[in-house]
Amino acid sequence: MAHSKPLNEVFSYLSWVHAVSGATGSVVAMSAFYPLDTVRSRLQLEEPERRKAQSTWAILKQLVAEEGFDTLYRGMIPVLQSLCISNFVYFYTFHSLKAIGGGSQSALTDLVLGSLAGVVNVFTTTPCWVVNTRLKMKGLGHRVKDNTMHYDNLLSGLIYVGRTEGAKGLWAGAVPSLLLVINPAIQFMVYEALKRRLIPDVKHASSVRFFAIGAVAKTIATVLTYPLQLIQTKLRHANSDKNSDLPPDTDMIQMLLIILKKQGTAGLFRGLEAKLLQTVLTAALMFMAYEKIARFVTILLIRAKK
């Protein structure tokens, strides 16, 4: 019986409520701002000579003019599927660990628990994001090795990459992803700290407050970790780029040195404006939706128990 309490915390309704709310909120938010994610991907993956640095709005118009309106939403379904899985895993793990720890609240606790949840999330969902990155760049001027295309959705992509490239291909970019667990950890730490300080009564707080503190938390986390995110994206895509001049089995340090040699320090922050615009708005809307959905579902559960 002594071991049943931690298990009860892990499999509690509350953890499920947070996981479902986080997953739903992330899908709603990404659906709303997906074209901004497309711009971010292009700036990170395409060479500077191909896509000159411009404002996000200018690049959106350029993409529509060159490739049609549909290109802004290329690969959206697998991204939403992966995002749903990823946020479900992250929120479920974070709140389960928090419950096991007695629900103690401090910035350090949130940072540690957020990092642990991030590690679980990386090992669980990296293959989904590898396939997503390749699907998102499908059909561009620089051809892709498997752009015949042997897969056009998440499931078939996972099967194909696993069969042709094995675990190494599925978990490409996992090392920077493990380092990047600090991104959502910082985000959750700042978000929870601001929420404790600025929203003492969560039950009656306005949606605007949740949106604002979500935006601040994501801005801080993104700026601090952006170079790693850029390297991660490039590593995920590198193995599938037929015309890539990268050496085989390029690792994180090699990719960093290549970017610095070709583009200088500024290259490590290429696409930051689009990333900030997309990720801050998406995270802010996600947290707002998450809090409202979690509150609504909790009320329903309380009423059902009565």
Account of the 3D structure:
Helix content is 74%, strand content 0%. It has 306 residues and is mostly helical. The protein has a single domain, classed as Mitochondrial carrier fold (Alpha/alpha barrel), CATH 1.50.40.10. Helix 2 packs across helix 4 and helix 9 (207-238) packs across helix 11. The model is unreliable at 141-147 (pLDDT under 50).
How is this structure best summarized?
With 306 residues, the chain is an all-alpha fold. The protein has helices spanning 4-10, 13-45, 56-67, 76-100, 107-136, 154-170, 174-179, 182-198, 207-238, 252-263, 272-305.
Ranges where pLDDT stays below 50 over 5 or more residues in a row are: 141-147
The CATH topology corresponds to Mitochondrial carrier fold
The fraction of residues in strands falls at under 5%
The count of β-strands is 0
Tell me roughly what share of residues is in helical segments: over 70%
Give the topology string: H per helix, E per strand. Answer: HHHHHHHHHHH
- The value of Rg in angstroms is 20 Å
**How would you sum up the major sheet?**
none
Question: How does the overall form come out from the CA principal axes?
Answer: globular
Helical segment count: 11
- Judging by the overall fold, what is the CATH architecture? Alpha/alpha barrel
Mean pLDDT across every amino acid position: 82
User: Any idea how many domains?
Assistant: 1
- What is the straight-line distance between the termini? 27 Å
Instruction: Assign the structural class, choosing from mainly alpha, mainly beta, alpha/beta, alpha+beta, or little secondary structure.
Output: mainly alpha
The fourth-level CATH homologous superfamily is Mitochondrial carrier domain
User: What is the CATH class name?
Assistant: Mainly Alpha
